[in-house]
């Protein structure tokens, strides 16, 4: 752990720097696979499924038998937990629905804004050691509330050609319309171009390794939208002597177990707390099954002492953490002052893992400083806002001349003409 | 004009195909300039300003003298028109403010969503023959309502080192905090990396030629967000015999004058109307100063006859037009059924140019089929939504076990542990 004492302002950007990766070599691979899937469709998907997942599949779509099988293989306990989480996610995202916004800007000029669902979306759920069924909930629940018509889920098959049953259970529960056993770059390419087996979608959501991340970025060059650019997961905790060191340590470790590149930062106005947390980390880390990963991440972690809460807040806003835990007597000060963060966790009994699973907030959040310019996934991620206007004869007479003058000043005569013709016809009739 | 009669479903995608451009050769130039600006800052900006704009500037920032000069050079008539437009844009975008959304998902588990402004934004306004001061209003007004702290505007200088006075007037009126005489790729690169003269921003908005478009796309690879990917402007009109052919023709032409690559489509259930509009276009086009451009665009335009309104609607949703005018006795049918469009104009007295300038809706809209997955610029484009959660001791006891079960099932022991520790401490105390 790197302890940093009262860093000067001009060192902040260096201290808060995230490790950057060169993606140039990955990009070449991703582009090649994209080209091949675009050209050869399922044939290319089969080829790369065989190379990367080590299996040949006759059918990519998960069958209803497989879903039933998954259903019966999951414990009732896990099902109940998933249902509770789903319920809370549903409640919070339903509350985000917005009404039509309508206003008469000038007499006779009615303007309104309405939201319409994105018709076809794709969810990518990684396979591997951690089957992220929680991410299925986080994406499919709001997609359902939004009214997306086609919800396609791609996840890589394991060596026996299966997808983790909890993923299948969650997907079925949340109304995913098609589940496909396709992973990695070939899944993203498939959803970008469409193949015989994989539907083309308009927007792709979900996490993934760096190949998937680069593939999603590339997809945007072919007209597909994505939820947000991705980077390693991050947690920043601000804590003072009102915090419980063991709890803070457990939160930092829950972040650290994600990956060796996870970013873990503690900011405090109390040197005593920093020391206590450091000790607790050393104790708790030994018990973790993912100890090796957590240790690597903790090695790069930062414990930063600052003189007061204003400095702490400024530094946190400069960093823009994905997850931000506040365990401070001044929690209101931080809540009101935080501008750049993905999701905020307040108080000693609000661990980050609550938001990861079951509080109801979304866990798909901006990393890598993107909290400065991107929202986390929310209901609006699944809709588009459209505007409407209806102008009466009186309305166009009120604003027509302003349009004519502005169009003329911009040198756009036909724009002016569209108004002039209408005004003239009204005058002639009038 | 291409008249298409009752096209079969399987020909739609061919008929509605937009021209695609290869950007590979542009990309090389853009990447080079980015690299140079990243490395050499203002020195590179000066070099490319000299190459592309043909001028050497000592100072990129517009001075207060230049602003005063611009102010006094604009007619009172134009100022009044700009003020009217600004007022309507302000009203419509202010109405889009959303309250904090707060909900107790489980007893003791409080979740809320709040929006915070993006702190630093950049607006790009092209120079050239059409000085788009209206776009300044469309971007700077909502940025001001959102509370963005730094609003930087870049626009290329003309040969005498000036920016069009109407652009300066609109920018000052709307609270732009810094106006810079920098254009093209070097402006986008400057706002991406920051130079001595050009502040680094978090999100870049605004139109531009294909160099600017590619530059904005590249900026996203360096952590900057953009408003949306851009393409040539588009208009689709659906009209029946209740429409006035001269009005429809004037709208189609107002779109056609934008550029030779503008997309202009008329869909109708009336062959009579199609013929009448065609005639009107031929008359009106001769009067336009930008006749040459409009004629090229009209050559590629499409007049599509379909048998009924349901087919028309399906076809329009398949296309996803940027601008969509409805002049039909069934306007409600189209308003309710349209899913993919940027902005919708209803009735004979609602020309597209009203939305371009003064109705109050935003004119920065998704083109190129992006209406299927992107919103037009609106108040939310200038903010990020953040989530908060605060869980009480009772709350964590209610959802804690679900979190433990799910974390364990995902193989994330430290995530579970963060909850277990808290539950245990409550049990011990309780």
Low-confidence stretches of chain A: none
Instruction: Give the radius of gyration of chain A.
Output: 26 Å
What is the overall pLDDT average of chain A?
95
> CATH architecture of the largest domain in chain A, please?
3-Layer(aba) Sandwich
Largest sheet geometry of chain A? 6 strands, parallel
Let me know the number of strands of chain A. 14
Q: How many domains of chain A, as an integer? A: 3
CATH class of the largest domain in chain A: Alpha Beta
CATH-assigned homologous superfamily of the largest domain in chain A: Nitrogenase molybdenum iron protein domain
Active site (chains A, B): 322 (proton acceptor), 323 (proton acceptor)
Function (chains A, B): Catalyzes the sequential NAD-dependent oxidations of L-histidinol to L-histidinaldehyde and then to L-histidine.
GO molecular function (chains A, B): histidinol dehydrogenase activity
Binding site for Zn(2+) (chains A, B): 255, 258, 356, 415
